[in-house]
Specification:
heterodimer, A: about 260 residues, five-stranded antiparallel sheet, three-stranded antiparallel sheet, B: about 250 residues, eight-stranded antiparallel sheet
């Protein structure tokens, strides 16, 4: 019976939906996390009787056909790149991006990844690094005993060196834009990798070309909205239940058939 | 006597087909832009083998499947590339198989900046596919589908195209083609839709109503079991008649 496998595709799709929702909820307080959304489409149809087929020589035709669908498929888990809210912190190393850009980060193997998580630290050599210790590009080294770290909206990093009263500019943070940021590959640790779908990275200065500007002593929160997630969870769970009811209905019908013979 | 079996069988075949349709609806209860299907049945009259049984026998036959074209619930998502249609119209999409039409407005951008569906097929504007520039920001889509952006640091908006909305004189003639798309019938070409508007930041959900589908399913299983019981009783009658008639006094 076709209904059995159709309902099974529905149950699998809803299971995946719950998985995506639970990951969103788990990352509700992850800095700069972008929520995902499972997207579904109907599967192919079996056209048992084609609509528009002529039923007589006078040109009468079937106004409706018989198209039996075979269920649902997951077409993707799209990432929604909307801006998250900014929260104030007191840490001068916290930087939030207000706009579409990403920070460029170099991994130990030399490859570049991109992140919006601006909770930076300094390593033993004074370089600005991410929470995992990867160096933020371009590398900026903060001299020992310097005070008054300032990162302005345009990404200029300046400090007051020890024994001086005037701030000096140490370097310039850059932001990278992608034409399709939803096409980036998430690799965990709040980082994304370039893919053929994301387009090539375009490095630029903060505050230009829509890359967004920087906000020091701020962090971008995740853009997960708990109300949306919970309502989606309810819908997914109920849809799962209904699909399982279809399976028991098909089972009942098969049972009635098999009971015919005694 | 055999006719009862055949009539019952025709009903059971039709019912299992109807359950397939219901199953597909329920499987797609969370599919954006999905339109529910309904089954149509018709009576099929056949003359009986013997004229003295009187009248003709009516079988049931599935005639077709209609699409419920009512709008689904519109959910606000706030995502600038999510668009919902208010009114009777479809988006035009360029697929590998040719031009298709969809109500699913969950659009994305691809690596070259083209507006595409979740499957990567180009969404058509009035002048072909719509392409954005790398430094475009603040995409806004007006009620009539005009897409405008701010390019780079520019303060004024630039147009990138207009979404093409189409409708059909006979929407029932549309054929579902998978991937939430419809295929136009040869005798009903798409026309420019005039009475539809676009809502940005919202998405049209499936129009499958859970309650309706569940009650239809109960009806299907109950009628199926009833027919099965009827067939069983017919079988018992046959059995009895064989038993009685075979009681030949020795």
């Amino acid at each position: 019976m076709r209904a059995l496998s159709t309902a099974a595709t529905g149950m699998m799709a809803m299971e995946l939906n719950v998985q995506v929702i639970s990951n969103n909820l788990a990352n509700m307080t992850t800095t700069s996390y972008k929520r995902q959304r499972a997207e579904f489409q109907d599967l192919l149809y079996d056209h048992l009787s084609r609509v528009g087929t002529q039923t007589s020589a006078q040109g009468n035709m079937l106004p409706v056909g018989i198209d039996l669908g075979s269920g649902v498929k997951t077409v993707g888990t799209a990432r929604l790149m909307q801006q998250g809210n900014l929260t104030q912190t007191t840490n001068p190393f916290d930087v939030a991006i207000r706009g579409d850009g990403f920070f460029k980060v170099q991994l130990p193997d030399g490859t570049y990844t991109y992140t919006r998580d601006g909770s930076f630290k300094t390593d033993a050599q004074g370089r600005i690094v991410t929470a995992q210790g990867n160096v933020v590009q371009p590398a900026i080294t903060i001299p020992a005993n310097a005070t008054g770290l300032t990162i302005n909206a345009q990404g200029q990093v300046s400090v007051v060196p020890s024994g001086s009263t005037t701030p000096t500019i140490l370097g310039q943070l850059t932001l990278t834009r992608f034409i399709n940021p939803a096409g980036l590959l998430p690799i965990g640790d709040n980082m994304y990798q370039e893919t053929p779908a994301s387009g090539t990275p375009q490095d630029g200065l903060p505050g230009t070309d829509g890359a967004g500007d920087l906000q020091q002593r701020m962090l971008e929160q995740s853009n997960v909205d708990s109300v949306t997630e919970i309502t989606d969870l309810i819908t997914a769970q109920r849809a799962y239940e209904m699909n399982s009811k279809v399976i028991s209905a098909a089972d009942q019908m098969l049972q009635a058939t098999s009971n015919l013979m005694r | 006597m055999q006719n009862a079996f055949l009539v019952g069988l025709s009903r059971q075949v039709a019912l299992s087909r109807e359950l397939d349709v219901v199953a597909n609806n329920i499987a797609n209860i969370n599919t954006n832009g999905y339109k529910a299907d309904g089954s149509l049945f018709e009576e099929y009259l056949a003359s009986s083998a013997r004229s003295d049984t009187g009248g003709r026998i009516s079988f049931v036959r599935d005639r077709g499947i209609w699409h419920d074209m009512t709008s689904g619930a519109v959910e606000r998502t706030g995502n600038p590339l999510d668009v919902a249609i208010d009114g009777e119209a479809f988006f035009a999409v360029q697929t590998q198989r040719g031009e298709r039409y969809t109500r699913n407005g969950a659009f994305h951008l691809n690596a070259t900046g083209q507006l595409v569906t979740s499957e990567g097929d180009a969404v058509l504007g009035t002048g072909g596919p719509i392409t954005f520039q790398p430094n475009d920001r603040e995409i806004s889509i007006s009620k009539d589908g005009i897409i405008s952006v701010r390019e780079g640091a520019s303060k004024t908006s630039t147009q990138r195209g207009q979404l093409r909305l189409v409708n059909f004189t006979k929407p029932q003639q549309l054929q579902k083609d998978g991937g939430s798309t419809f295929k136009a019938a040869a005798n009903d070409p798409p026309q420019q839709a005039t009475k539809a508007s676009i809502e940005q930041g919202a998405i049209e959900k499936s129009n499958v109503r859970g309650v309706v589908e569940m009650s239809r399913m109960i009806e299907i299983t109950r009628s199926y079991t009833q027919v099965a019981t009827l067939l069983q009783q017919q079988g018992d009658m046959n059995q009895q008649s064989i038993d009685k008639l075979a009681e030949v006094p020795a």
